[in-house]
Amino acid sequence: MKQLEQNKYRVVVEGNIACGKSTLLRHLSKVPFTEVHYEPIDRWRNIEGENLLARYYSNATRYAYLFQQNVLQTMMEIHHLPQTEPLFVMERSAFSSRYCFVKTLYENRSIEDLEFNCFDRWFKWLMRERPPSVDLIIYLRTSPETCLQRLYSRSREEDKALLLPFIKSLDVCYEQWLGTPDNHIWHNNTPVLLLDGNLDVGSDAALHNKMVSQIIQKLENITPPEKVMKAQIEVSN
């Protein structure tokens, strides 16, 4: 049992809004022995019949704290789900809520000092009492301009309220958090794999196979070879 547990990995895919996370996750979902957990957007859209995501985008100053509090809660729930496959992959994390989104909202004054301090206190308590287990962070580094172009081309209604300055502010926070190894803010010094999110992997089978191979190779280097899951990449064309 202990040997089996040591062969399990928990991976987080991080990046700006519309950076290409969902596309990468779709490709990863085709890798054998992999379970993928997307952001729980449907839960954010339906809280006893109310669309909190839409309210947040339409009035960030009023709903930013409430929304990010809900994001943190739902992300922690996913972090602590039982793992059923050797490779557990989730879209974003509790950490990007604090280090990127809440930080950006605080700096642009959508979140007040009191709200930020309350959120930060709760976050630190969770990290101390129920810290998530993460073996690898994948950072899709994508330019704000590319993110905005993709954002306007997809059909999510709530995204239409987002503007380039907010995307750029998020980009700065992501770079401060994950872009420079010396600045990694992480409770366990988790490895970070940087991938080029500007590349269009949607229709390029060779490119997305290469990205998946990079991820598997990175995981193989995290633990000794005899404890490594040998996942075979069988992505259908």
Describe it.
This protein has a five-stranded parallel beta sheet, with helices on both faces. The chain has helices at residues 2-6, 21-28, 41-45, 52-58, 60-79, 94-107, 113-129, 144-153, 164-179, 205-220, and strands at 9-15, 34-37, 87-91, 136-141, 192-196. With 237 residues, it is of the alpha/beta class. Helix 4 runs antiparallel to helix 5 (60-79), helix 6 packs antiparallel against helix 7 and helix 6 (94-107) crosses helix 9 (164-179). The longest helix has 20 residues, at 60-79. The protein has a single domain, classed as Rossmann fold (3-Layer(aba) Sandwich), CATH 3.40.50. The termini are far apart.
The CATH superfamily turns out to be P-loop containing nucleotide triphosphate hydrolases
Q: What is the share of helical residues?
A: 40-55%
CATH class: Alpha Beta
Q: How many domains is the backbone divided into?
A: 1
Span from first to last CA? Answer: 36 Å
Strand proportion, as a percent range, falls in 5-15%
Question: Strands of the biggest beta sheet: in what spatial order?
Answer: 2-3-1-4-5
Number of helices: 10
User: Whole-number average pLDDT?
Assistant: 86
| Number of distinct beta strands | 5
CATH structural fold name? Rossmann fold
Query: What string gives the helices and strands in order?
Result: HEHEHHHEHHEHHEH
Radius of gyration: 18 Å
How would you characterize the largest beta sheet?
5 strands, parallel
Query: Helix- and strand-based class?
Result: alpha/beta
The CATH architecture is 3-Layer(aba) Sandwich
**Which geometry do the CA atoms define?**
globular
Low-pLDDT residue intervals, each spanning 5 or more residues: 1-5, 224-237
